[in-house]
Design brief:
It is a single chain. The protein is α/β, with parallel strands linked by helices. The protein is 38% helix and 13% strand. α1 packs parallel to α5.
């Protein structure tokens, strides 16, 4: 059986790809504004690491809210980029695609600081794991870096700068806007790692 990774092309998933070396990387274009940049980054990383890359396209734009969809956030939004049930959506879509690849474990690059929204918490991934394992296909859902923050994850993985630099963390564009929460987190992490002038 094979291992797959939800590979958005963002910093955390890119680092996890380097650290865990799954057989498959799945990038989901669900209608988010940054899809083009995410696919570009994920493709480059998969090529460098000899990971088979799968791109899943399902247009869910009409369901989106917040920064990632280019709309005002909901009154329920814990943060401006919150897209309702996003992780549940992409885990489900990826799981459906991963069945054909014989994937038995699907990793997601959630980290300790993702707890601002419910679907970034350990409890969420435990429940998604129970749901996915219960169904035909028996796919396990894991979050190997859930106990680490972004800097700890980078240091633990040993990822070289030249691969880390390909990551695309912007929430609103195919190229880094420099001001959204994703770009801000990316810059802060790079600064803490000593790559502030990259």
């Amino acid at each position: 059986m094979s291992i797959g990774l939800l590979l958005s092309g963002g910093m955390d998933s890119v680092v996890l790809a380097y650290w865990k070396r799954p057989q498959f990387g799945y990038t989901v274009d669900y209608g988010q504004l940054a899809a083009e940049g995410e696919i570009r980054a994920a493709s480059a990383v998969c090529k460098a690491l000899s990971i088979q890359h799968r791109i899943i396209k399902v247009d869910c734009r009409q369901l989106g809210l917040g920064d990632m969809a280019g709309t005002p956030p909901s009154r329920l939004s814990p943060v401006s980029e919150w897209w309702p049930f996003r992780n549940q959506l992409i885990i489900t879509l990826t799981g459906a695609g991963a069945i054909a690849d014989g994937v038995s474990e699907l990793m997601i690059g959630a980290i300790r600081t993702d707890v601002t929204h419910c679907d970034g918490r350990l409890e969420f991934f435990q429940r998604m794991n129970n749901l996915m394992e219960f169904q035909e296909g028996n796919i396990r859902v894991t979050a190997p870096a859930i106990g680490l923050d972004a800097v700890e994850l980078v240091k633990t993985s040993g990822i070289p700068f030249e691969i880390l630099a390909w990551s695309h963390s912007c929430h609103v564009s195919g190229f880094a806007c420099g001001i959204c929460r994703g770009c801000t987190k990316h810059a802060e992490t790079m600064n803490q790692l000593g790559y502030g002038d990259y």
